[in-house]
């Protein structure tokens, strides 16, 4: 039965069986070994990259995008679809294979023994084959768990470390790292620096004070900061953070046009989160062209649970 499912999936993705088995084998080998050390992370990710036929033509960076800010898709939690769980490197690869220029948004948590890994929830219950708080386990206890997709089905994919994620992302996608509560910004920034990833790895913050801390720790890092209210804009305006290093997250409901104009005057590029109600509305209405209106109104980046669909609409207007 498993082999039949694999054959059907390979046919669905338009792959030869030989190629699909090769990719599955490489992914499995990568996941089994990427956690042991930074050196092994880099070696295994490079091997995976070499076997992939679809690779971006140029190394993506925020600096490149800021110089030519075309509408951009941000894949919320990495862009999970059926068989591809959230916060998994294989899920990220599935997205970049189909969207050459994309932001991968992912979540950084920390284990009991201070290993940084990707996990959105405080607990393991919803997205893995185990239960309990992430912070109650050492990484050795977590590295062999399997991830569940959003339908609750067990996949063959495992929890990636932040190290493996940063190594994977170079030259493939821009990353925005949502640092979960209790994870020190200093640790995340240190990891970014160790992989020379400041050009493609941004840090998400929810308060201007946190954005100022990140900027103080490393002024080269791009920062996403909440910018959905006039009060937030005032605090952004008086902060010493260079506006060209900021992405203003305006929230998960569309702001007034005047709010976009205020951000434009500040020189801050904007992210609209359609994840949640706006995505659901597009599905219920059967009208993906609504995303073009969000861009027309002032959103530079669409953060969505439907990255493939949104990217398809945007690319059709190029």
Q: Please give the share of residues in helix.
A: 40-55%
Using the CA coordinates, give the radius of gyration: 19 Å
Which CATH architecture is right?
A: Alpha-Beta Barrel
Total E-strand runs:
9
Category from helices, strands and their pairing = alpha/beta
Q: Any idea what the shape is?
A: globular
How many domains? The number is 1
Instruction: Please count the helical segments.
Output: 14
The CATH homologous superfamily corresponds to Phosphatidylinositol (PI) phosphodiesterase
State which percent range the strand residues make up. 5-15%
Low-pLDDT residue intervals, each spanning 5 or more residues: 1-59
CATH class: Alpha Beta
**Measured distance between first and last alpha carbons:** 43 Å
**On the 0-100 scale, what is the average pLDDT?**
86
Q: Could you describe the largest sheet, including whether it forms a barrel?
A: 8 strands, parallel, barrel
Assign the CATH topology. Answer: TIM Barrel
Query: What is the H-and-E element order?
Result: HHHHEHEEHHEHEHEHEHEHHEH
Give the strand order, joined by hyphens, for the main sheet.
1-2-4-5-6-7-8-9
Structural commentary:
With 318 residues, the chain is of the alpha/beta class. It has one domain (56-315): Alpha-Beta Barrel (TIM Barrel). The protein has 14 helices and 9 strands. An 8-stranded parallel beta barrel has the order 1-2-4-5-6-7-8-9, surrounded by 6 helices. α8 links the parallel β4 and β5. α2 packs antiparallel against α3 (38-51) and α3 runs parallel beside α7.
């Amino acid at each position: 039965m498993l082999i039949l499912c694999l054959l059907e999936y390979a046919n669905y993705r338009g792959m030869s069986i030989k190629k699909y088995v090769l990719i599955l084998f490489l992914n499995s080998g990568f996941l089994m070994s990427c956690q042991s050390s930074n050196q092994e992370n880099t070696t295994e990710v490079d091997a995976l990259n070499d076997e992939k036929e679809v690779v971006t033509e140029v190394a993506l960076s925020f600096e490149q995008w800021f110089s030519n800010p075309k509408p951009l898709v941000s894949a919320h939690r990495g862009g999970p679809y059926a068989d591809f769980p959230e916060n998994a490197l294989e899920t990220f690869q599935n997205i970049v294979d189909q969207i050459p220029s994309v932001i991968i948004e992912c979540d950084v948590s920390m284990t009991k023994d201070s290993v940084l890994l990707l996990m959105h929830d405080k607990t393991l219950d919803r997205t893995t084959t185990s239960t309990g708080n992430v912070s109650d386990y050492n990484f050795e206890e977590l590295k062999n768990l399997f991830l569940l997709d959003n339908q609750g089905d067990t996949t063959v994919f495992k929890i990636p470390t932040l190290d493996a994620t940063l190594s994977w992302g170079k030259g493939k996608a821009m990353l925005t790292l949502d640092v979960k509560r209790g994870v020190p910004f200093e640790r995340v920034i240190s990891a970014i620096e160790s992989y020379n990833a400041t050009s493609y790895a941004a840090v998400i913050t929810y308060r201007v004070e946190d954005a100022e801390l990140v900027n103080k720790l490393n002024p080269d890092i791009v920062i996403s900061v909440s910018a959905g209210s006039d009060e937030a804009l005032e605090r952004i305006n008086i902060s010493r953070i260079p506006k060209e290093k900021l992405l203003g997250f305006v929230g998960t409901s569309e702001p007034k046009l005047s709010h976009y104009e205020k951000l434009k005057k500040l020189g801050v590029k904007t992210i609209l989160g359609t994840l949640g109600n706006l995505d659901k509305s597009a599905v219920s209405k059967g009208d993906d062209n609504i995303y073009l209106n969000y861009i027309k109104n002032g959103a530079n980046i669409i953060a969505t649970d439907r990255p493939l669909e949104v990217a398809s609409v945007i690319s059709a207007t190029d």
